[in-house]
Amino acid sequence: MQGIDSSAYPNQPELALAALLYMLTRATHSSSAALNDAIATHLQMVAHDARHTESLRKVARELAGEWACKALGPSGSATH
């Protein structure tokens, strides 16, 4: 998401949301596998909902994989 021109936000509000999702993902340090799994599931829902713009769905797809890995934990198996 580097290099986003914030002057585009009024015309493409999904860019602001996409940047926010990236910031939240980078800033959050959750140790809850259940929460991480729920976030991954919801990101997948957004990623597959054709009512959302392609730019938002693309970001959701990218982040869903990161959150799914966090839900599995370092051993690669669910830690619920």
Question: Which helices and strands appear, and what pairs or packs with what?
Answer:
Layout: H1 13-27, H2 33-47, H3 54-72
Helix pairs in contact: 1-3, 2-3
Query: How is the biggest beta sheet arranged?
Result: none
- What is the number of helices? 3
Rounded to the nearest angstrom, the radius of gyration is 14 Å
Give average pLDDT, whole number: 74
Number of strands: 0
SSE string, helix = H, strand = E? HHH
Envelope shape: elongated
**Helix/strand-derived class?**
mainly alpha
The end-to-end span amounts to 31 Å
Characterization of this structure:
By secondary structure, the protein is mainly α. The chain has a domain at 32-73. It contains three helices and no strands. Helix 1 (13-27) packs parallel to helix 3 (54-72). The longest helix is centred in the C-terminal third of the chain and has 19 residues, at 54-72. The chain starts with 12 loop residues before the first helix and ends in an 8-residue tail after the last helix. The mean pLDDT is 74.
